[in-house]
Amino acid sequence: MNYLQDRTFLLVTGASRGIGREMALQLSKQMQTEGSLVVLLGRSQQHLDETKTAIEQARGTDNVKLKVLSYTLELATATATDFAELLKQSLQGVDIETFKRAIVIHNAGTVGDISLHAREIGDTKELTHYYHINFFSTVALNCEFMRVFRQLPKLIVNLSTKAAVEPFASMAYYCTVKAARDMYFRVLAVEEPSEQTLVLNYAPGAIDTQMTEQVQRDTHNQELAAAFRQQRESKTMLTTEQTVLKFLNVLQAQKFKSGDHVDYWD
Length: 266
Ligand SMILES: NC(=O)c1ccc[n+]([C@@H]2O[C@H](COP(=O)([O-])OP(=O)(O)OC[C@H]3O[C@@H](n4cnc5c(N)ncnc54)[C@H](OP(=O)(O)O)[C@@H]3O)[C@@H](O)[C@H]2O)c1
Fold this sequence. Notes:
The protein is of the alpha/beta class. It has helices spanning 18-29, 45-59, 80-90, 124-148, 172-191, 210-218, 222-233, 240-253, and strands at 8-13, 37-42, 67-72, 101-106, 154-159, 197-203, 261-263. Strands 3-2-1-4-5-6-7 form a 7-stranded parallel β-sheet, with helices on both faces. Helix 4 runs parallel beside helix 5 (172-191) and helix 6 packs across helix 7. The structure holds NADP nicotinamide-adenine-dinucleotide phosphate (NAP). Residues 14, 16-20, 42-44, 47, 74-76, 107-110, 133, 159, 161, 203-204, 206-207, 209-212 line the site of NADP nicotinamide-adenine-dinucleotide phosphate (NAP).
């Protein structure tokens, strides 16, 4: 099934760089229908503009025009009201019913303080801040997305990770939040009919982005740092393009059931 053939609403969080930028780029490239709308979210307007330019350049001039909007939003403090307002603004003057499908890619994420051990992460202020960025905002956005597009078929993608299902030393923040996100989306998947709301927890593999650079630099897990260093130096670390193309193949093949956790390496 081609999810991007018909008139589509697409929202990507963390679209300013890394996997999110590539998701926005590759998915937009495949949208062929006049009236589709792409919404990019991040904190850096400059980097969101670069993503928008990359999309426009990739589509060329002889293609149907795609509307691309971008909004800056700090996920550490964002509320349901902010997401509702943002969706309202992006849909101004647009009849929702004319879309055939709405897609959200919950991609934005941070790795947390990886210099600490699990026994040391007891600062509730810091935990709340981290969970707000990576869990509360994701769930709040998802709720607003479900409400606004209740009548449309929806595809909901959570950028997951192997760390959601396997513990890694130094990654207590990250592993716990990603496990929580996976479970939230699994619950959503068992509650909603999959023909109307299809959910995918996609683990992209280890990708050459700022996130893995940070892990390599700051983790106290020397084994993990060495593995990333080795992959980077030997140029075997996956690229954002490789993982997004795999993601598109997973979607196309439709061998997963709603709510499944699918890894790049599966
Ligand atoms: N890279 C990997 O190997 C890997 C592996 C497994 C899973 N993942 C997952 O894939 C997703 C993308 O990872 P990535 O490697 O592409 O990360 P990245 O290069 O660090 O990009 C993170 C994105 O999240 C946004 N973001 C971060 N903090 C934010 C905040 N407080 N408010 C709003 N936006 C914020 C950033 O935008 P701004 O800075 O512009 O705000 C950026 O666009 C994450 O969910 C990550 O957990 C990555």
